[in-house]
Task: structure prediction
Amino acid sequence: MSEDDLSAMKKRVARLVYIAAGGKIDEKDLERPDTDLREIGLDSLGYLNLLEGLERTFGVSIDLDQEEDHSFLHTIDNIVCYVTAHRGAPA
Amino acid sequence: MSSILARGAIRDAMVDCLGRHDGRKAVVGAESLAYGELAGRVDNAADWLCAVLPGDEAGRRSRKHLGFCLGNRVEYVILYFAALYAGDLPLLLDANFNTGEIEAIRSDCGLDALLIEPSKAAKIEVPGKGDPIPFADEVVLLPLSQVAPPRFEPRVSTEVCRFTSGTTGRPKCLEFSGHAVVSAAKNWILGTGMRGEDRTLCLAALSNGLAFNTSLLSSFLAGGELHFLKGAPLTRPVARRIEELGITRLVAFPTLYRNFVAPGGPDRAAMASLEHAISAGAPLWPDVREEFRVRYGLDISDYYGIAETGPCTFERDARHHSGLGVPLPGAEIRIAPGPGDPGTGEILVRTASMASGYLNHPGLFEGRLDADGFYHSGDRGRLVDGRLHLVGRTEDHINVAGRKIDPTEVVAVVSALPGVADAVAFPDEDLNREVLVHLAVVAGSADLTRAAVAEACRSRLAPYKVPGRISFVPEIPRTGIGKPRIAVLREQLKASRKESPS
Result:
């Protein structure tokens, strides 16, 4: 993936996070890719919306029971890494 | 059969139905148990509880208070009925309660042990915490030695306790008699036409009134199947489960239904077996209800129940697409005359499934009953041709995803911060139309930051109580007697957002 593609992907994921949180979090906080999403207010309902969004946008179905470590969901950077590795055709 | 068989209305009802439906499938989660198998597992678990929480040397065993701090799973069902068989008192906690809330419950109501996931047990830091005793792969019993006698003793008739949000981090403990719990289940079966052929997929937490009353006992009394979903309740796994298992009843919350009707949601064919889609916990958006009906050919039943009274209404008539339906058997509804539209007022409810009272707030429940025993719900509504329509609330509580939050608790936390001159919390909506707590703060010091306010809330409040929005304002408009004028404040905030769109 090129730098441009990666940057575009981060922006799309950041936008999904913002929408998933219902706009409750500051978009400026999302510009820092290492921000812990839990600390800026992404709650359990927001995560539910985010997982729906990731599946519908990137075709990545995340089964939390199959993942030993959920920390990949804590930052935009890590979500992008996960999505890039598991990406399929949009559902 | 367990050597310990305590008397109790719930236990008696369960023993009866486990015997009657032997051979049929009863509960399905990570494992699947037929009624006969469930009966055996409950008996064994009752014996296990008596062994790990024994009586004194003379063999006298007092009623143990067991806090259920678990997500939905087969073991929850087994241990819940096992506790009743063993003569213990299940206290159904919200699995998201923090250590402070658990400690407050222990202090008020007494907790001899928690049934909890091992990872959560490790994080709980309370005095007198014992070593976890494994029950299943993901469930342990965490003994708690009582450091002081509880402040309140439950009524002898109490068979189950559930919780509603309280102020200052002390959840209010509702006591239910076995008769009330069995009545709720039987009237739900009667009022909703539940049958032995029904397969209920329950996505709401069993500690929540919605799931407790519509699924936990009623499904078994009807001889049906109760299904749980492992993992997050996302639309595709839910739809897959519905399709694969022929689920007939879905018990869920508005957000899930909204996600179903969003672009890219599951196909109609996947939902073909579904006969009842039940929503509760928070008001369902009318457009989501309509869109769901168009897409899946099924009207969502917007269940109305109150923690203190149990289930109140249900709509069985497919020709009605608005409102909350008609009173269930055993439920009576009155509208108290009030200001505004004639016929609209506070909803008063009397049911056969009423709570007995608040264990840790004596007199509070009783004070909300009128002379005829009707409970003042705090909700405003009207009856149209016998159908209940909700208009709003008469009280100040904020309902976030079905959890009622007292705004004074949030304000108390923030007001303790240096530099806060005034504050008020009130309900607002996010971009997804989910209700959130909006906190308006008047800074008395230039050093006070949004981050400091947010951190104070996060560190001292349960996650669902943390404000989703924090605004700094020059002052909070108040009435002559000091009551915040929320409508005026909303207008001021709206105007200031227009002035500074960033």
Q: What stands out?
A: Chain B touches chain A through 29 residues (CB under 8 Å). The mean pLDDT of chain B is 90. Residues 210 and 337 of chain B are 28 Å apart (CA to CA).
